[in-house]
């Protein structure tokens, strides 16, 4: 019988992550890679000392109330933790960590892709070529919105927001942002701070969301705020689907007030919003912001670093509660 801590890994993490985890822990992996259900989480809590879940495993207050006291740490393989009821886990005595920093560039890359693709008709363009429907060219064909030199509004200037701003600077964009607090001049790097959300919206030809999903930010981008954006604005969301009122977004796209949207996350995941499928002006990806090989390894290693510190009796670097 080994004296290594036992951990549960409900999803198929990167090979390098699994190899390191198996070296240092007794590991139970959900080989079929399906999301861990509430029943799985509760049952596993009596068999393991720690878990490395993804945002697909939901630690609601009801689940947490039934956790076995054996489980001492939830070392998330994600930066977002809206799938975890942090106060409930804290009062249950479970330590929770996440994986900040390491996915900022990968997520910002996807935000750039969505912004460019939404601005330049990537969905319709690809389909027209792919289906053989491209039979003419004219100066008025597929004319889009120029990104270079345009004004970008960034909601949430945390690590991902700042990584996105760095990339947007490469396109000579004029960067505006709203954040709970103003950044230092060094981090701001010339970006224009708006303490007031409405004033940010009014100047945002492009708007990219980079804030966490919390009860306060739920449906942040609602009909009223969409109406404040300039005519023809483009929306980008790589944060969480809960930030957007999807019905209001559809109305704004249908009216033409919003030109297009690039979305990597949706109110309902997996699956997305079926009403979006008929809209060529929505460029959609299936929540793959952090899905690069290097980033998956880095996320797995960061989660393991947190577990290692915890089981060595130290403070995990990314402890949230
Ligand atoms: C995150 O880390 O929050 C990403 O959305 C993937 O889960």
Automatic annotation (TrEMBL):
Presence of keyword DNA-binding: no
InterPro entries: D-isomer_2-hydroxyacid_DH, D-isomer_2_OHA_DH_cat_dom, D-isomer_DH_CS, D-isomer_DH_CS1, D-isomer_DH_NAD-bd, NAD(P)-bd_dom_sf
One GO term describing the cellular component: cytosol
Single annotated GO MF: NAD binding
Coiled coil: none
The keyword Chaperone belongs to this UniProt entry's keyword annotation: no
Residues covered by the D-isomer specific 2-hydroxyacid dehydrogenase catalytic domain: 17-318
EC number annotated for this UniProt entry: 1.1.1.29
Domain D-isomer specific 2-hydroxyacid dehydrogenase NAD-binding: 113-289
Keywords assigned: NAD, Oxidoreductase
Superkingdom per UniProt: Bacteria
Homology family: Belongs to the D-isomer specific 2-hydroxyacid dehydrogenase family.
PANTHER family membership: 2-HYDROXYACID DEHYDROGENASE-RELATED, GLYOXYLATE_HYDROXYPYRUVATE REDUCTASE B
Stated name of the protein: Glycerate dehydrogenase
Source lineage: Bacteria, Pseudomonadati, Pseudomonadota, Alphaproteobacteria, Rhodobacterales
């Amino acid at each position: 019988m080994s004296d290594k801590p036992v951990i549960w890994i409900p999803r198929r993490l990167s090979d390098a992550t699994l190899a390191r985890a198996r070296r240092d822990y007794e590991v139970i992996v959900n080989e079929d890679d399906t999301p861990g259900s509430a029943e799985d989480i509760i049952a596993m809590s009596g068999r393991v000392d720690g878990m490395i879940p993804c945002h697909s495993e939901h630690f609601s207050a009801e689940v947490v109330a039934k956790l076995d006291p054996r489980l001492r740490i939830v070392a998330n393989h994600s930066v977002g933790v809206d799938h975890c009821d942090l106060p409930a886990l804290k009062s249950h005595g479970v330590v929770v960590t996440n994986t900040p920093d390491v996915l900022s560039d990968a997520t910002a890359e996807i935000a750039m892709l969505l912004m460019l693709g939404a601005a330049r008709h990537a969905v319709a363009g690809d389909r027209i070529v792919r289906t053989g429907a491209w039979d003419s060219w004219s100066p008025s064909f597929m004319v889009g919105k120029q990104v270079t030199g345009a004004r970008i509004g960034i909601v949430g200037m945390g690590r991902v927001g700042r990584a996105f701003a760095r990339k947007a600077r490469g396109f000579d964009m004029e960067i505006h942002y709203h954040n709970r607090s103003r950044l230092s001049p060094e981090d701001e790097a010339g970006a224009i701070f708006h303490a007031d959300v409405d004033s940010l919206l009014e100047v945002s030809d492009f708007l990219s969301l980079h804030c966490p999903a919390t009860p306060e930010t739920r449906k942040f981008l609602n009909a009223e705020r969409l109406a404040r954006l300039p005519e023809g604005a483009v929306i980008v969301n790589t944060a969480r689907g809960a930030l957007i009122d999807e019905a209001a977004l559809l109305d704004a796209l249908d009216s033409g007030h919003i030109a297009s949207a690039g979305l990597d996350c949706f109110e309902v995941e997996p699956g997305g919003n079926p009403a979006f499928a008929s809209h060529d002006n929505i460029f959609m990806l299936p929540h793959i912001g952090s899905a690069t090989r290097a980033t998956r390894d880095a996320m797995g290693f960061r989660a393991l670093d947190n577990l290692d510190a915890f089981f060595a009796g130290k403070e995990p670097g990314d402890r949230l509660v």
